[in-house]
Amino acid sequence: MEQNIRISSLNDFLFCPKSIYFHNLYEDYERQVYQDTPQVKWTINHENIDNKQYSTSKNILQWFGIYSEKYNLVGKVDIYQTDKKTIIERKTKISKLYQWQIYQVYAQYFCLTEMWYEVKKLKIHSLSDNKIYDIPIPNKEEIEKFEKVLDEFRKFDPSKPFEANPEKCKKCIYRELCDSY
Ligand code: SF4
Q1: Is the CA virtual torsion 133, 137, 141, 147 positive or negative?
Q2: Does ligand 1 come within 6 angstroms of the Cβ of 17?
Q3: What CATH number does residue 53 fall under?
Q4: From ligand 1's centre to the CA of 12, what distance in Å?
Q5: Cα–Cα 20 to 30 A to 143, which of 33, 113, 135, 164?
Q6: CA-to-CA distance for 107 and 99, rounded, in angstroms?
Q7: What tens digit of pLDDT does each residue of 5-57 get?
């Protein structure tokens, strides 16, 4: 049976495949001990959602578990507006929209639609500057690219030689532990 892929792991994989190892290593560890400031801010943002501090609107479902049997994906969705059929992923600050952020919302979209929720819009909300990024619903070509990434994830072998991207390493929270840095 194929293993489930956590949506959060998929994010790390898209940033750098090697970071998956560290992601798993720290999975059960106290988060604040190793997270840099941006990650801590992210955690606080999500705790607000966890604690239902975001909104009391009956049209908003917050931070709930999602699953796709088709893609073996598991994770959580930040916010789903039931009236607007919109998924909103919140980020602390977005200075540039990266592919992994888009794929994170795609993953939520695939899970929710498979769970029979109707989804018409995808958005990413950059909190610090209050900007909203509209993400188009994935078309056939985007779906194929997404599926290719899932395939690469499953086939990735960390024991094989790996060429790090120094620019990514500089921003990586695992850099002090990584032998590729
Ligand atoms: S330090 Fe570089 S190679 Fe290592 S996990 Fe981070 S981004 Fe990847």
Answers
A1: positive
A2: no
A3: 3.90.320.10
A4: 10
A5: 164
A6: 12
A7: 989 888 888 889 988 888 877 765 544 444 455 554 555 555 555 555 555 57
Can you tell me the distance from the alpha carbon of 137 to that of 63, in angstroms, rounded to the nearest whole number? 21
Strand pairing category for 73-81 and 5-6: parallel
Q: What is the pTM of this model?
A: 0.82
**Cα-to-chain-centroid distance, residue 70:** 18
Distance 119 CA to ligand 1 centre (A): 34
- Where in the sequence is the domain holding 62, given as residue range(s)? 5-177
Number of domains comprising the chain? 1
Max alpha carbon distance in the chain (Å)?
A: 51
Atom 7 of ligand 1, residue of closest alpha carbon:
169
Q: Secondary structure of 117-178 in the HEC alphabet? A: CCCCEEEEEECCCCEEEEECCCCHHHHHHHHHHHHHHHHCCCCCCCCCCHHHHHHCCCHHHC
Q: Does ligand 1 come within 6 angstroms of the Cβ of 178?
A: yes
Environment class of residue 113 by beta-carbon count within 10 Å: exposed (0-12), middle (13-18) or buried (19+)?
Answer: middle
